[in-house]
Amino acid sequence: MKIIATTAIALSLGLGLIGSAPAWAVGGSFACERPPIMEVTENVEGSSALQSIVNQYRERWDAEVVARECEAYAAGEPYEISCLNGRRDWPTILASVPPDYFGRSNKSLASTVDTERRVDSGYKAAIAYCRSVGAIK
């Protein structure tokens, strides 16, 4: 009887927390077990340089989503703080990459890779914002 009562209390407490922003977000994470670059290689045919560039655009897209989810959290609106693998909008990400990058060799994209890597993706700032509002630890 004691086990049943304890279970009932635990379930009722847990159900009471579902949907409340702070309970779900605290300890939440956008980290994934599988590296995001694996998703890039599945969605991008071409040179490793092109995949590296697309990965930069993927990180920029991730930054926008992370910031949006944490803004929703801070506003008490619905949000989802979890791994983005399988949830990315690949047509949008790929459309954001300049079309002339596609079909080019590693050698012809070498300087472009360096240039794209120097562009701030905004991801660190988005994560810092999430921490500042308590959405993630």
Search tags:
137 residues; mainly alpha; 0% strand; elongated; disordered N terminus; signal
Task: Provide the fold topology.
Blueprint (H helix, E strand, L loop, with lengths): L1 H16 L3 H5 L10 H8 L4 H27 L15 H7 L9 H13 L4 H10 L5
The biggest sheet, with number of strands, parallel, antiparallel or mixed sense and barrel status, is: none
Q: Indicate the percent of residues in helices.
A: 55-70%
Secondary structure: number of strands: 0
Question: In total, how many domains does the architecture comprise?
Answer: 1
Indicate the proportion of strand residues.
Answer: under 5%
Q: Secondary-structure element order, as H and E?
A: HHHHHHH
DSSP helical segment count: 7
Give the terminus-to-terminus CA distance: 37 Å
| Shape summary | elongated
Low-confidence stretches: 1-25
Class inferred from helices and paired strands: mainly alpha
Cα gyration radius (Å): 20 Å
User: What is the mean predicted local confidence, pLDDT?
Assistant: 84
Q: Can you give me a brief rundown of this structure?
A:
The chain is mainly α and 137 residues long. It has seven helices and no strands. The protein has one domain.
Structure characterization notes:
- This protein has 137 residues and is mostly helical.
- It has one domain (20-132).
- It has seven helices and no strands.
- Residues 1-25 have low confidence and may be disordered.
